[in-house]
Design brief:
mainly alpha, three-stranded antiparallel sheet, two-stranded antiparallel ribbon, 6 helices, about 10% strand, elongated
């Protein structure tokens, strides 16, 4: 029995060193080597931090692209989804209200043209990106609100559309904050 206790203590010590010291140091090192040095990719305008590339924000004015809805109000401290399923009446009402809002502010689009990401929150509630289609359906509204040529706004969307990660993983997407900042620079 003493043999097993000693083996258990050795294994425990090895795992403590591995998982409580070496692994966190490795993760911290990887963070320091990434964009933003582990503090997130800050987006700076006029010397001020206006947001983070990987953290969604709320845009509600008609002259801006709107991002994906958030179940937590884009609060990173409370990152989570709503945990409401597709059969939940409250959830269906929320999604229906979001569809109605999009149709109200984008009267030229049809309900069938609205991509799911524009009316459903992500699992974290912090998604900074929308689909290319989500950006495309908003072009006319933004062009009218800003009194701009639709083609200029469409070109901006194309310019800020990112392909799948490593060319393989995920869909094409558009970072809403970066796109809105570029939109402001056009004026």
């Amino acid at each position: 029995m003493k043999k097993y206790i000693i083996q258990s203590l050795r294994l425990t010590l090895v795992l403590i060193v591995l998982l409580c010291v070496l692994y966190p140091l490795g993760i911290a090192l990887a963070g320091r080597l990434s964009n933003g040095k582990g503090g997130g990719e800050k987006i700076i305008k006029n010397g001020k931090v206006v947001g983070y590339a990987l953290l969604g924000q709320s845009f509600t004015k008609p002259e801006y692209f709107w991002g994906r809805p958030s179940a937590v109000g884009y609060n990173a401290a409370g990152s989570a989804g709503s945990n409401k399923g597709p059969s939940n009446k409250d959830y269906l009402k929320t999604v229906s209200d979001r569809i109605d809002t999009l149709l109200k502010y984008n009267p030229t689009i049809k309900k069938a043209d609205i991509p799911a990401d524009m009316v459903t929150a992500s699992g974290s509630g912090l998604d900074p990106n929308i689909s290319e289609q989500g950006a495309t359906i908003q072009i006319k509204r933004i062009a009218v609100a800003r009194k701009m040529d639709e083609r200029k706004v469409a070109e901006l969307v194309v310019k800020h559309t990112d392909g799948p990660y490593l060319g393989l993983f995920g869909p094409t997407s558009v970072n809403v904050l970066k796109l809105n900042l570029a939109l402001d620079e056009l004026k």
